[in-house]
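Aim 2 progress update. The chain analyzed this quarter is reproduced below.
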Amino acid sequence: MARPQVVIIGSGFGGLFAAQALAKADVEVTLVAKTVAHLFQPLLYQVATGILSTGEIAPATRDVLRNQANATVLLAEVTRINLASRVVVAEKLAKTVALKYDYLIVAAGAGQSYFGNDHFATFAPGMKSIDDALELRARIFGSLEMAELSEDADERRRLLNFVVVGAGPTGVEMAGQIAELTQHTLRKCFRRIDTTKASVLLLDGADVVLPPFGSQLSAAAKAELERNKVEVRLGALVTNVDATGLDVKYSDGRTERIASSCKVWAAGVQASPLGRTLAEQSGAGIDRAGRVEVNRDLTLPGHPEVFVVGDMISLDRLPGVAQVAIQGGRYAASKIRGEVSGHPVSEEFHYHDKGSMAVISRFGAVAKVGKLELTGFPAWFAWLFVHLIYVVGFKNRLTTLLHWVITFIGRARSERVTTEQQLVGRLAVKQLGEDFQPTIAGTLEPGKIKH
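Predicted structure tokens:
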């Protein structure tokens, strides 16, 4: 008798931890994802600012699951899900595959949200993928290089004005690391510009930074940012973004034009479009961010064989953090193991909050674990310890720790290489159009490529 087929969509925290939790179950697991790696998304900003390499925060999924005999990994992007026939259709480089399932775990995560202004992405990339981080690395270091070349004072000022939109953990950490770069790491590397004169601006429409952390930690984070030469402007809504800057409207009605060549968008998230697909077919509700309203056991209404986990769920106002995905993936796996073994799990999903942390500068961080609130070095050390635990693989933990020692003790950064392809690749592909069909050997439409 054939073993039950479990299809998992996504190789992030929810998908990978679900797959690993099914290692000893009497099932066949197929993990399908649009990337070949398990991305440790909370450390993306360290790739963008030259601290870590991509391999340290994104180990190959095949390597992670190589000893799990019941797991198959496929590189493809899921484009259709048919709940009635229990089929998932995925595509990659002009190839299409159809996967039948007995159980489905959807952990496709979330992308950047521009709140209906998707054209902002052309000028202000988000921070949700390796491609995003490498493009931002090219933009950050490229702005400094172009400033070194420029003879025009206004252009130099624009190139040396870095703007981060969004004062959540990603925005705060990104702004803090750009300031570390310009104030310390690169201080003696240029001859025609003074990087310490660069400005780093953090904007947010809210009236505090890191709102979920509480008033005391929010105030401490803002003070630490300002101590490290980051200018924080709150109550600031971005109304337009273009090549030379952005327009801002403040809560008191004032408007301002900010000149900047390098902008980073960290202001919102939008769940995978697969959420809407699931909602339409199941009748489940969906919120403004595209998250699916699931049952208390993370299943879709009317479909007990389909689980949705991580950033894609709307349940009890759970935050879009790694622990929600990890715990959700493991819970879904436990439900499947129980049904297959004849010992069904009747308990509902309960999220256990393990705290929130954000690192701002060298030895400066804030952390909230239950009622315990930490700032400064104790919070930074706790952040380092926790993140090191969740980096996948001993080798990656070792090299990550080595890079952190180099960066936080000596202020050096070993991952500063950028390429022109990283800078322009995303926009160049978009110009080719949505119907452009690349293949592993080149393209089916060579006429679209100018030689």
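The two ends are 55 Å apart (CA to CA). The mean pLDDT is 93. These observations will guide the mutagenesis experiments scheduled for the next reporting period.
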